[in-house]
Specification:
Elements lengths: L1 E9 L4 H21 L6 E6 L3 E9 L6 E9 L4 H11 L8 E5 L3 E10 L4 H15 L19 E8 L2 E2 L3 E2 L2 E4 L1 E2 L10 E2 L3 H9 L8 H19 L1 E3 L3 H8 L6 E6 L9 H12 L4 E3 L8 E6 L8 H19 L1
Helix pairs in contact: 1-3, 5-6, 7-8
């Protein structure tokens, strides 16, 4: 049994496309493996702002040999029919075929042949380029002088089977065993041998949380923490939560404060400006139950000052937005 790790590394994938792409990649990969006669024990995929990753555990090292049967004409059929059967079955003489008896149809010729199985490595080297070329994105692009289309320029392909690179090439991008981490906190590169090593390095030194579920929970925990310390109640927004989950590889929740004078605007105007333009969450004061002069932003960086400058910068941007809204 083998383990296959595939990572498709690119420039930023739009947040709204990541979850479906994760599902589509796994479906395409398992479909190709099944078609080739390979089995496996477990398969899963993860997605993030810059990567789609699929893992197949317990993969068969080789597909089984397949015995094929080709039925021919009845015994005593015209010579022309027998000759056509021999050509189609790849036989030189009718003596190489077997005669099978059927109570209703009588005796007829049958040719048996064995199609040898294939090594998983060969199947993967053929399947992955096809998956990439056929992959459907709601919107895709070409870059440079190549013909390959992808959601954003494809920069790297990790394809590792039992710690060894499966050689392949798509659109000028060759497979390998190295990947990148967070642009700021741990770019790398990192040489990986399999899923456990890949996850340990990226989520450690690389500062990349691979799973959408884990990033979402980090955000929820961060929101709960900043709201508890400030006496606030987060205004739940599942749609925005899903979006910001796809925007940050290393999500860090920061609480900001806006000019209280803007609270004379209708709450709907404030929250809409926060959500639509800036991807901020709004919060109510636990004391008054009304909208608080605060916003919650999910950053993609751990700042040395605890996020103070991030909060200040975002407050200035929000003030400009709300000034436009007031106008």
């Amino acid at each position: 049994m083998s383990e296959l790790l595939i990572e498709l590394f690119s420039e930023e994938i739009p947040a709204r496309m990541q979850a479906k792409a994760e599902v589509d990649l796994l479906a395409a990969l398992t479909g190709k493996l099944k078609e080739a006669g390979l089995g496996w024990k477990n398969a899963f995929a993860v997605s993030g702002p810059r990567r789609l990753t699929a893992v197949i555990e317990g993969l068969d090292a080789r597909s089984a040999d397949v015995r094929e049967e080709k039925k021919g004409p009845k015994v005593g059929a015209p010579e022309q029919a027998v000759a056509g059967f021999l050509r189609g079955a790849g036989l030189k003489d009718i003596s190489e075929a077997q005669v099978v008896s059927d109570p209703k149809k009588g005796d007829f010729y049958v040719a048996y042949s064995t199609v040898p199985g294939r090594d998983a490595k060969d199947v993967i080297a053929e399947a992955v380029p096809a998956i990439i070329r056929e992959f459907h994105w709601p919107k895709s692009m070409r870059w440079g002088t190549g013909e390959l289309r992808w959601v954003r320029p494809l920069q790297g392909i990790v394809c590792v089977l039992d710690g060894k690179v499966v050689p392949l090439e798509v659109g000028g991008v060759a497979s390998g065993n190295t990947t990148e981490g967070h642009r700021v906190h741990g770019r790398g590169p990192y040489t990986v041998t399999g899923w456990a090593d890949y996850k340990a390095q990226l989520e450690g030194q690389g500062h990349v949380i691979l799973s959408r579920e884990d990033r979402r929970q980090m955000i929820l925990d961060g929101i709960a923490k900043v709201c508890a310390s400030a006496g606030l109640q987060w205004i739940e927004d599942k749609g925005l939560l899903e979006e910001v989950t796809g925007l940050a590889e290393w999500p860090v929740v920061v609480l900001g404060q806006m000019d209280p004078d803007f609270l004379d605007l209708p709450p709907e105007v404030i929250t809409l400006s926060m959500r639509t333009h800036q991807k901020y969450f709004a919060a109510n004061s636990k004391k008054t139950g009304k909208l608080a002069p605060n916003f919650i932003v999910v950053a993609n960086i751990s700042a040395s000052d605890g996020g103070k400058k991030i909060a200040q910068g975002n407050a200035r941007v929000l003030s400009a937005r709300l000034s436009d809204a007031r106008f």
